[in-house]
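Much of what follows relies on a compact textual record of a protein's fold. A record is reproduced here so that you can trace the correspondence yourselves:
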Amino acid sequence: MASANAAGRPHGEPAPAARMGGQEFDEPALPTENYPLTILGLMLASLMQVIDTTIANVALPHVQSSLGATTDSVTWVLTSYMIAAAVATPVTGWLAERIGARPLFIGGVAVFVVASMLCGAAQNIQQIVIFRIFQGIAGAFLPPLSQSFMLDTTKPSRHPYIMSVWSGTVMIGPIMGPVLGGWLTENWNWRFVFYINLPIGLISLFLLIAFLPNRPKTKRRFDMFGFAWLALALASIQLMLDRGNHADWFDSLEIWIYAGLAISAAWITAVHFRTTANPLLDMTLFKDRNYVIAFAVMISLSVMVFSTMALVPPMLQHLQGYTVIGTGIALMPRGVGTIISTQLGAWLMRKGVDIRFTMASGVLVSAWSLWMMAHWSLDVDMWHIVLAGFLQGLGTGVVFIPINIVAFSNLKPSQRTDASSMMNLTRSLGSSFGVSLATVTLAHNMQVSHSDLASNITAQSGGGLIDFSTIDRYQALGEAGLAMINAEVTRQASMVAYIDDFYMMFWLTIISVPLMLLIKPEKKA
């Protein structure tokens, strides 16, 4: 590789701002010797990380039986990863400036691959939880650094397109995860859920080592006090969201402790970041109105997308009788819609369509899909499932591109890593909150619906064919009949609960539309 580029500056150093008549040339901030292969390496690293956030979910029962774990302890395979990623994400910006973004990114990919292999080779639940912590820490650096590197190595005029590529990867990964995990678990072994990262990671590592440019380092002081309290707040929030359903939420002292720690630590963190001279995170980001609005929309979108992804697969498998592979096929059109709409969103932005109109249209299409899902029944056919999923992918993909463009529209290149870290942390916490909200309301509505339906089951409900006052004379046969009736009531109550959740997500999506009107469109040169 050449040590200097055509302009005579060392490889990897930022291009100087070339100006003519007061206007900057359309040049990337970090030129690279092979742009397509650099982007491919960045995309593979991002894809590997986002797939891993959901791929292990379907393998948990197999992990439990293989390692002899309890139901409560096996959930730490997921919880440990999420907590480690949440705690490590905020320090990405500081580490990138202190040790260099290139070494941090390449090191993160390498550690992620090694930790994945160790997870696959784990012999007990304690080992896999420890290795998942390392995997979560390394994985936390990959999405924000990949996003900032893709922006830095791309011409500003091509930012909408490259964000469509990155966003498509981030959106498709969680959809592919359960399908790929289910296929690997059924046809191979749960350990291949982790081993699959080896070929992807090695290809990414080779490309990144060969072509990823350097970014200048700075001597930025580490805010240990702010990091400690922020880490405590994030860990407590993540524990509360992940453990809530298992610990019966606020009926448990454990959840009250997590909530108290989260509120206290978040308050101390906010006051410290507001008053200290050198906070861990660049707080000037939140002086930009577009970034704050993008931040809020990202929370809303993450809640809607990930809660729906958590609801539909179990509904199809438990109520509709779909297999894991069949569920994946039914949900695949969601990914197709996302791929199409990310490119559509980039095209609309290049054509100069008002970004507020683009985002609002995407949100309304997503709301339309949720409205369709709220009208499903136990007799819903494959076509309606496919159509609703495709429309939801279409809507969220259109929104995701403008969100990232809006978030970075007024920021300096030096702020991109911190900004990307916060956006990815928001997406992670929003997804955790969405899944927790969906599961809590589903369980509650299922109990309420079951009670309401059961109260209407009388001797007259079966047209006089069922006499509950004398059914005990049939002994085992009578008990079997009652069990069948209860099973059908439970099935109907479950469907009602799913419908209620879809309605709730529909209204949460609709109320985010007014936020689009507050965006300040970027002025055209």
Remarks:
- Strands lie at 19-20, 23-24.
- The radius of gyration is 25 Å.
- The chain has 19 helices and two strands.
